[in-house]
Amino acid sequence: MRLYLKGERDFTLTEVSDRLDLHPTTAFRFLMTLESSGLVEKDPETGKYRLGVLCLELGNAFLKQSDLRERALGFLESLRDNSQETVHLGILDGLHGVYLEKLPGLHPIGMMSSRVGSHFPIFCTGLGKAILANQPEDSLEDFIKLLELKMYTPSTITDPDQMIREIYKIRHQGFAIDKEEHELGVGCVGAPIFDPDGVVGAISASGPIERIKEKISSSDLVQQVIKTAESISSRLGGSRTK
Questions:
Q1: Which residues pair with residue 198 across a beta bridge?
Q2: What is the pTM of this model?
């Protein structure tokens, strides 16, 4: 049963309980939890409940992410077709990344754990490092210190000082490389995407490590990923600040 009907905005505890077929005590506990998180507000004068400001923030964030995927998709398809590798689009979610899109490559690659909607570590993936490296510089090192540098493979960087050096290198050069740091046998190249407010995500091209290493050596794949990220940024009205 729907709680909100057309034209209605505020509800009493009794109305919430009745419409959701919940015991008033249970409904009250739910509302208290939602209120404490900012998802619901209670009018002190009427005692009625309405959606909180956090719902607006979440809605705007969702629309922004959906807009990013929509605007990026054509560029991602071109990158996949030209590189023939698996292409990802990801964003930051707290201390983790989230895959917004995955376009499987034209070459068989075997098992790759990434899937749309799932989280990925930002310190050992091409996508994540590209996003991490372009966080505001005045808080970048503090951000890195918050991360749990878990070892996924023997190539994962787990030393905080080494990670800071790696991130500043990526920030300077404009792209990130993952050489089996997250998954054995998989390598990737990632580059950040910007809108007018700063970094909003990243893209990457991934494939078997030996093939990716060969393409990195020729600079071919790196340039393709960078140019694609720059094209998406341009469409969003953003650009990389060096």
A1: 195
A2: 0.71
